[in-house]
Amino acid sequence: MPSVYIKTYGCQMNERDSEAVAAQLVAKGYSLAASEHVADVVLLNTCSVRDFAEQKAIGKMQNIAAEVRKNRPNVVLGFMGCMAQSRGQELIDRLPDVDLVIGTQKFHRTADYLDEILNGKRDKIVDVAAEQGSEATIREHILNGKAQKSVSAFVSIMQGCNQYCTFCIVPYTRGEERSRRIDDIVAECRELVARGVKEITLLGQIVTSFGKREKRDEWQAARDTGVPSLVTRHSSQVSPFVQLLEAVHEIEGLERIRFTSPHPKGYGDDLVEAYARLPKLVESAHLPVQSGSDRVLKLMHRGYTRERFLGIVEKLRRAQPNIGITTDIIVGFPGETEDDFEQTLSLAREVQFDNAYIFKYSQRKDTPAADMPDQVPQKVREERNQRLLKTVNEIGKRKYETFVGRQTQILVEGPSRKNAARMAGRTRCGKIVVFDGSERHRGQLMDVKITRAGSFTLYGDPAIVNL
Ligand code: SAH
Ligand code: F3S
Fold this sequence. Notes:
The chain has 15 helices and 19 strands. It has helices at residues 12-27, 51-71, 81-87, 89-94, 110-118, 170-174, 182-194, 212-225, 240-249, 269-277, 294-300, 306-319, 338-351, 378-401, 462-465, and strands at 3-8, 31-32, 41-46, 76-80, 100-102, 125-127, 152-156, 158-159, 178-179, 199-203, 256-260, 284-286, 324-331, 355-360, 407-415, 423-427, 432-435, 445-454, 457-461. The strands form five sheets. Strands 2-1-3-4-5-6 form a six-stranded parallel β-sheet, with helices on both faces. FE3-S4 cluster (F3S) binds next to helix 6.
């Protein structure tokens, strides 16, 4: 059977989609190749959120086509994911070496399509159609891919987004919001825990909207037919997302639950209260704010004000004083003035984020912001990026230093990425802790004493705690 190499660009959702495709191919007998240089099939799973990500994937494919195809003409080359979805056939027109283009609702068809190409039945395949029920197809896992047990796993709970922020291409590449059924998600989580997983991260583009559309549709159906709801487990004041958290929380042997990405508008009292009520739900929240200026937030169509955002942060900190809060911020959105930008700086200072991912605004095809007046010059975007980065780093450094001398619980995930001789784990509030350990610590919950803080990394010593 052939071997496959999948390279992934972009977010955790993409990582998860790639894992599911790899699992699907392994089940068909494929082996996983170590690099594009030795693989029979090379797939690039792409990101469209910023132009830079698209250019990187296109550049990579050009290199592969030039180098790999030269020596091994039968290698199959494919694009998957967001850029495949938004560009479709255009990718083959531009890069004739590409054989396969698979959109975001067709990952589960990869094995069949490769089969047809490898058997010479078809030459080129482009499939970017919508498919009903595709949200439930990202289900299979490779847990022992690196010959080691995975401690932490990602579970896709929904696809798409209906928020239509004016800068964002995701609603077009991922489609309408569609949620999986709670019982199906719980069954997948149970299987993972039975295979040794201790921590599950629930994934979606806007997880706080989980089940909302289905709930609305079913209410209408229930009113018309009298048949009770299938998606939600009980009708209460608790949102479908919190019902899902409750259901996953019941799984015995699961230690920690995380989720990403929520939308600030989804932080109702039920979710805030869940942090205090569900001990497996860790004290960590990624709360994308995008801007500190009400004027810009409105132009972005974010659906909240600065004051409302600050109110959510305050409520969360009241429920869980040690909660780690991270965010995404865009600088240089069309029309952003120096005054607007300073409001973002002041918001970052006011909230004291544990970390913030800063993005220079990138014009995306067919999004409303791409045609807005007063596009901010690249030089200004760059300069604001640097100023905000400096502020965020200073705050992060101070935050991380407050951990020194403290004892904290970590879940050990495996060798440190920067130094494979050491082990790394994560605190409940989401911070990486590197320590001297060995494979026998993998998967353990252990207490460490923090001895030093580095750049968005903590260093700890379990020995001091366990004396
Ligand atoms: N809710 C989604 C958002 C996806 S995009 C999720 O996290 O899954 C991730 C981040 O990229 C956004 O929060 C935003 O800060 C940034 N981003 C999105 N579109 C962008 C654009 N056109 N230019 C620059 N940054 C962008
Ligand atoms: Fe994009 Fe806004 Fe949805 S950032 S993914 S449209 S919440």
